[in-house]
Structures are given as structure tokens and as C-alpha cells.
Amino acid sequence: MSINESCNCGETGFSIAREISAKLARCTCSFCAKTNMLQAYYATDRWHSS
Fold it and tell me: Domain of 40?
């Protein structure tokens, strides 16, 4: 399974060749706090930009 997403402006896309991680982190910056964004961390060999 692959996760496909893009940055907030939509200019940069990326995919991660993996399932969603069970370990998530919460950012406390103003943007992430307003959108309840969660973050997951993956090894660089799983991440591909587009």
C-alpha cells in the first residue's frame, strides 16, 4: 500500500510506500493546531517526492 499526499499549497507531492504508522506525533504550531494535524515518521528509503 502507498500513501500519496501533497504539501499545503499543492505544489509538491510525495508518496510513502508503507502503511500508516501506529506511532503518530502532534505538532503544536498554529497551522497544525487549527487543523488537528498528526505526523508520522518514516525511513528515507520509503519516501519519494513528485
Answer: 3-49
